[in-house]
Amino acid sequence: MSQLTYLKAINRTLAEVMRADPRVFVLGEDVREGGPFGATQGLAEAFGEERVRDTPISEGTICGIAIGAAQAGLRPIVEIMFIDFITLALDQLVNQAAKAHYMSGGQLRVPLVLRTQGGAGQRAAAQHSQSFEAWLTHVPGLKVVMPSSASDAAGLLQSAVADPNPVVYVENKALYFQREEVPDAVAPIPLGRAAIRRPGRDVTIVATSRLVAEALAAAEQLAGEGIEVEVIDPRSLVPFDLEAVASSVARTHRLVVAHEAVGQGGFGAEIVAQVQAAAFDELDAPIERVTAPFTPIPFSPPLEDAYLPGKDQLVAAAWATLGYQIGG
Amino acid sequence: MTTDAASSIIDAPVAFSLLRTMWRIRAFEERVSELVATGEVPGLVHLSIGQEGVAAAVCGQLRHDDAVYTGHRGHGHALAMGAPLDRAMAELMGRADGLCHGKGGSMHLVDVAHGLLGATGVVGGNIPLALGAALAVRLRGGDQVAVVFFGDGAVQAGHFNESINLATLWELPAILVCENNGFAEFTPRSAHTKVERVSDVVAPYDLASETVDGNDVFAVYAAFGRFLARARQGRGPMLLECLTYRLRGHYEGDPARYRQALEVAEWQARDPILRLERRGLEQGLFGQAEVAAAEREAREAVEAAVQFARQSPFPARDQLFVHTYAEQE
Ligand SMILES: Cc1ncc(C[n+]2csc(CCOP(=O)(O)OP(=O)(O)O)c2C)c(N)n1
Ligand SMILES: [Mg+2]
């Protein structure tokens, strides 16, 4: 065990997978210097500049090169510095990576990982703070992973690299410098297996990425008020562990779904739809959603703080499923 | 390089093999045109009639461990790489025995066993993929090369420009083959850019590039051969611009009102198959009987492919779900 940040856990795992498999290489903007946060720091020194490749600002082509290399049998890890810029790579991701296996009748494989990071709260304004995971979950052929802790970041990254499909691995910049105890050797965490972060009998909260910690804080507060909340982190959105959520709802009969992305068309809507189909009879109350409002992300600190969903909304939403209205 | 110089490196077997490949493509495409008209080949179909020389000259020099990417007008490239006619035809008809089991169709022929790694319907989207294949050669070691075919229309796309920059920066063993047929869909090149020649677009990057008469199969063969020799040594990238013309509409069913009858007639006179036959006969590379046999055998093989495809079943409905995700090997 050692104290590691989320970022360091990613950095250490990148080095481990590169050491274990010579087919793995990294490419992206400024990756030799470590990128703006340091996720790839030290890799160029350890593995050389052939395997840690700085690229120009050409997101579409970088992504396409990774796809071509993956089809040729390598295991690229391509970094898109901010998920906001994934727009420029979506053509390659959606039209090439996601469907090459299907369109070729199984001849081609695209075992690539696209690492990127989203999330607000850093006063980075509307083009460096967004949460776009729902777009990616809409594309058959892609897998989508969102680690919420350092240990999960390490375990999920290993599985993403080993997966024979294109996996989009979405980090959250607000989590980068959180420290936790991480085992010295983290086992791979299979994609599609949710984690119960806190067991509880009264209300289930399904939360992703940064909102997992908010959900745990809400659960702590609610415990003081006599409400036991179960917090589930799906960890990967595609594949999604419906079984874990539905069986939790069968115990609690109440569900809150939470993510930092805007609600409209968000992945939370998909979770709601899947749960009501799988466990309608178990629900004792309408499912509540906690999401960002349907606006761009404002720069001004008080406005951004008002934008970000967090513990207070989760507490209110949990009470709402219990039939109480809290706050406005 | 002049045609005379080029023809000195093309011996009789090569010349005849080029002719046979071109006839296979021509016969295939002509038959596909009929099958589109009768509805047996569904969907969007872009034929390469008139452009066969490029496919034959380029693919005829490649190996099955090279990586070729093509686009929406890719039947000829697939066949010239050695994709079996019958499975290609079955793919166009959406049958279970198609190259991609009916999941790809005309715009997405893939035949990994013969080095055809992909065909994209998103113009320009294939160019980065070829760079990735070339990078894989670099990282793994080997003398394989990556080749990507695209049209003049793709040159104005962001992917082309990003790719030229990256391929030259990283000196990737990739050969970019542009079939400049003067049109993107219904619009002449002059309406899309001020730069007429694709080789001029890339001039600042200081890469080896050449513009050749794409309807002169010997010229394409010679120029591509020079590039290939360098790429086999790990050098690159290179850009080969082949000036050519599609003798059919953009897609089957396109009335092609945007073209002048005179222009079409001029290009018909420059039909790459006619030119090869004329030259081959003149230079004694093959005889009249061989010319006739090349065409006849091609048409027979295509007919057999049509029969094969017709007998192949449509994929079972449960195939809808197969191959959405790859399984761990
Ligand atoms: C990104 C994109 N935009 C538009 C289209 C529609 N489209 C299909 S083919 C084509 C013209 C392509 O011209 P060119 O690259 O010269 O190839 P050619 O058809 O002449 O062989 C267009 C615009 C497309 N398939 N992809
Ligand atoms: Mg064109």
Description of the molecule:
The complex is a heterodimer of chains A (328) and B (329). With 328 residues, chain A is α/β, with parallel strands linked by helices. Chain A folds into 2 domains: 2-182, Thiamin diphosphate (ThDP)-binding fold, Pyr/PP domains (Rossmann fold), CATH 3.40.50.970; 195-323, Rossmann fold, CATH 3.40.50.920. Helices cover 37% and strands 20% of the residues of chain A. Chain A contains 12 helices and 14 strands. In chain A, the strands form 3 sheets. A 7-stranded mixed sheet of chain A has the order 3-2-4-5-7-6-12, with helices on both faces. In chain A, helix 1 packs parallel to helix 7, helix 8 (210-224) packs across helix 12 and helix 9 (242-252) crosses helix 10. Chain A is globular. Chain A starts with a strand and ends in a 7-residue tail after the last helix. The mean pLDDT of chain A is 97. Chain B is built from 12 helices and 8 strands. Chain B has a single domain, classed as 3-Layer(aba) Sandwich (Rossmann fold). In chain B, the strands form 2 sheets. Chain B has a 6-stranded parallel sheet with strand order 2-1-3-4-8-7, sandwiched between helices. Chain B starts with a helix and ends in an 18-residue tail after the last helix. Chain B has helices spanning 3-8, 12-37, 52-59, 75-81, 85-92, 127-140, 158-169, 198-201, 217-232, 261-269, 272-282, 288-311; strands spanning 67-70, 116-119, 146-151, 174-180, 183-184, 187-188, 208-213, 238-243. Chain B is globular and about 50 Å long. Chain B has 329 residues and is α/β, with parallel strands linked by helices. The chains are: A alpha/beta (328), B alpha/beta (329). The interface between A and B is large, with 46 and 49 residues. Bound molecules: thiamine diphosphate (TPP) and magnesium ion. The site of magnesium ion has 6 residues of chain B, from strand 5. Thiamine diphosphate (TPP) is lined by residues 46, 72-73, 121-123, 150-154, 181, 183-185, 250 of chain B.
